[in-house]
Amino acid sequence: MVYFQISPVGFDCGTDKNECEKYPDYCKECVKAQLEKFGLNLNQNLKFTIIDSQEKRIQMFQDLIWQKFLDILNIKHILLMAKESGLAIVDYPISGAGVNSQLLTGFIQANVSFSISSNASNGYATDEKNHQFYEFQYENFNILLKNGEFIRTCLVLDHKASNSLKVLVAEFLSDYESNYLDKISAHIRQGKMHFEDTIDFVISTFNVKLVFPMILTHTLLPNELELIKRNPIQKAIIDFAEKLLASKAFFFIINLIDEVQKIVHIDANKILYEIYQLIQKKIIIPTTIEIAEDTISNFQESRAVRIANNELISSIITSDDDINELKENAKQMSEEEVRVSINNFIRKAETAEKGLAYKEAQKEYEKALFLASGFDLKDDVGRISFMILELDKKIKELELEYALKVGEKSEKKKDYIKAINYYKQGLEILDSVQDLNGNESRIKKLKKKISNLQKHL
Question: Could you tell me if 120 and 136 are in contact, meaning their C-beta atoms sit under 8 angstroms apart?
Fold first, then answer.
């Protein structure tokens, strides 16, 4: 038999307080009696809090989510170490803080040994009343360490840990050892074991997705769109998210909160609460840091040198006020001035491209192409057209990667309709790419995958 302890649990008694003769003096006894009907064991110490209005309930959730967000912003690196050997079994960086985990594990072993031998003196360890958390400085970071029966949990922090983070670490350590006891035992007996499959549990427990790069869903159902329109804060969130995505491939929650606060002058915890609701509904979607980093790395690879078609890729600048001004200025420009302007536009485009501001990069490239075409500078026309084509390929590659990733996740969850829809989006992107070299096999595999999934429907 397995015993489950559920904490915290919310319970709606179903009775209006204005119509209840027992409110508030007998609420605890009444709720206990109702819960016991479900077979819940309430002999343990029971923390009982009355939240007697919807406003208070929402405020409680706002504060709870905000604290989760502050805690994860504070964490720079998560290390799980075998207690006996001190070897790292999970090494998960959350930011680019550049922590050397090998040096850190050695430093931790030395400090823990010192703390134990000196009976937790010199401020390296807390006392038993604080559940034996070790807290010490490492370079510019604060270290929070807790021992379990078999492993140690180590968090590398910017600032000292909050009480809520300490409680979370204690709960995580207990749950992790319980969930993965067989794997941990095998590691102790046999040595090296792979713990990569436990990282999702780490991400979930510490709410790491709150600091992941974010994107918006490609499709919104009519009822979802209507609900967002009725909520001015959510409407502002979506509007600013789209604005951020116009210049970058993804956005972060902290930047989104800053943008919304400039217009909607309310507390950040209220904005985060609404963002969290949109995440729960999968309207705002976290992506993994690893995928984002790989994408950025791929996007910054050097371009292959080849001749591209001399054509305008999009009509981005045709309705832009800048092009009207450019047309007027071009009438008075000499060829030398045109070449200087073309190089300036290209430099601006390259800078925007490095910053992942692809729409801005397209505008600048196409301004340069407009001048080069107008003055019949054939070499520049070919060179700039090639740059625009390569940029367009990058954008499509990012869209393709996203569609395939969501399709794969949906397929694993057996949400076959959603998986097919995203795989079809991927097919459309592959079909739209002019240079199909190497794409034929990808298209065939994707069509076969869609066909196999359709058999499940």
Answer: no
Q: In the chain, where are the structural domains located?
A: 1-52, 68-210, 213-286, 396-454
Nearest to 278 by CA among 214, 220, 234, 213: 234
How far is the C-alpha of 266 from the C-alpha of 262, rounded, in Å?
Answer: 9
Residue 66, CA distances (Å) to 57, 73, 427 in order: 14, 11, 40
CB 187 within 8 A of CB 89: yes
Query: DSSP secondary-structure letter at 162?
Result: P
Find all residues with CB under 8 Å of 402, minimum gap 6, and list them: 215, 287
393, 352 Cβ separation under 8 angstroms = no
Rounded-to-integer distance, Cα 295 and Cα 400, Å: 11
pTM: 0.55
Task: Point out the least confidently predicted range of 194-203, 261-270, 306-315.
Answer: 306-315
What CATH number does domain 68-210 carry, 3.30.450.190, 3.40.720.10, 3.40.605.10, 3.20.20.70? Answer: 3.30.450.190
Confidence of residue 312 (pLDDT cuts 50, 70, 90): very low
Beta bridge partner(s), residue 93? 77
- pLDDT tens digits for range 158-217: 999 999 999 999 999 999 999 998 888 888 777 777 888 899 999 999 999 998 888 888
Q: Taking each helix axis from N to C terminus, what angle separates 335-354 and 358-374, rounded to the nearest 10 degrees?
A: 160
Angle at 160 between CA 154 and CA 165, to 5 degrees: 60
CB atoms within 10 A of CB 344: 13
What is the Cα–Cα distance from 405 to 425, expressed in whole angstroms? 12
* Separation of first and last alpha carbons in the chain: 38
Q: Cis ω on the peptide bond leading into residue 24 (within 30° of 0)?
A: yes
| Amino acid symbol at 181 | L
CA atoms within 13 A on the CB side of 44: 8
CA angle 159–160–161, rounded 5-degree value: 115
* CA distance linking residue 378 with residue 380, whole number of Å: 5
